[in-house]
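Narrative summary of target 7.
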Amino acid sequence: MLTGCKVGAIVFFVTDLGRSLAFYRDTLGLPMQSLDGHDGPWAMGEVGELTLVLIPRPARAGDTPVVVFSLDGGIDDYADALAARGVEIVVPVSEAPDGGLSLDFVDPDRNALSLYQPAGAARRK
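Modeled conformation, tokenized:
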């Protein structure tokens, strides 16, 4: 039924919109913007062909699926930068099942996020 579809958006319910917007925009460097909608403030940003949406509403940690951001290399540089910004790393850089590398961390609401780079890509840029 979903053959040929791709993920177009990921919605995160967040407890503090300002804090989460700052995390995604300022800490991770994603092009996020704050918006006003018919139900109040929210935020969104385009990351490649994917739209990230932040909606202020109490969230239960772990209810959100893991979102994987693909890298073409430099995963150790990203790990260092995240740690330097106080981001909680829950699984350090480790081998992924296909031989690539992954790193798992959480946002301020403990939504699970992951970085992935394919096998053979340089660990540092």
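The two ends are 40 Å apart (CA to CA).
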